[in-house]
Request: fold
Amino acid sequence: MSERSESITGFLISSGWADATRTTITGDASNRRYERLRKPDGQIGILMDAPVETNVPIKQFIDVSNWLRQQGLSAPTCHAVDHNGGLAVFEDFGANIVAGLADQDPARELDLYRTTLDVLLHLGNCTPMSELLEFTPEHAAGICNIAFEKYGRFHPATHGHQDLTLAVLQGLLEHHAPETNTVALRDFHAENLIWLPDRNGIRSIGLLDFQDAVVAHPAYDLVSLLTDVRREVAPETKAALVEKFVHATGRSMDAFGPTFAVMSLQRNLRILGVFARLALENSKASYLDLIPRVWRHIDEAIQHPMLAEIEPLVRNGLPVPTKDTLAGFRV
Reply:
């Protein structure tokens, strides 16, 4: 038994979960690992294994979770925690993942996504947590350097375009999406949302994976939801949610178009670099299969007329993800 396994066993004993059966749950892009726990009496929980050396402190997840519940939303309660060991047992929301439900029955997608938008609109009316990072245009543009450093590392033109591209991106964000007044959970997509049929309204959407929450533009998580890199969202669903968001927040469709486009560009440039890094440095080549969809979101964003200045910089500075391009990341 490894030292980490011994630590987990000791934690489960001390927290009263030693007699639970353990089933591994498919992981995400992080270094965290999850297991579903089930006691003989039927009590269930989720074990989060987040070694402190490679993860944000579990306290951050717990603090955001507590805040979300205080706002009337559904976030998992912590049953037991070892902060120093990077271990915790959380409430189990079950396996009704919104992405899976929408894929199984496409007719449900719009209703599920509308309820999810209600969650985001509610968050927009909440006073943000004061201790969260402010996701300013400068910060948002700066963290996109990973697209050039990791995804563009084999592309000769990349380094000549990086600084100018990021500067132009920052300028576009400052002009079209300067607001930072809403808690954004950041990794907000349908695989991180759980349908809770025994709860009503906004509480029927269970929230996960929010330890990297920031204070950002009110539409940041909407853009994340609708430019999902893991599944195709129906055009009708996208249009309906954008229209509802614009109406509910008193914006105009004309002004919101470039706002959505530049935030989609920022988010997907960042993801492009993260997925390349996961393949190169963490042997997670499966993320390369998602890059063509990431690129499609980027391509769609830079075609907006208000992003004309940055379009040639992106096209000349980063390679199109052809089969040959992606082959270079498979190690």
Q: What stands out?
A: Residues 3-90 form a domain with the Phosphorylase Kinase; domain 1 fold (CATH 3.30.200.20). The first helix runs from residue 3 to 14. The chain has a mean pLDDT of 94. The two ends are 29 Å apart (CA to CA).
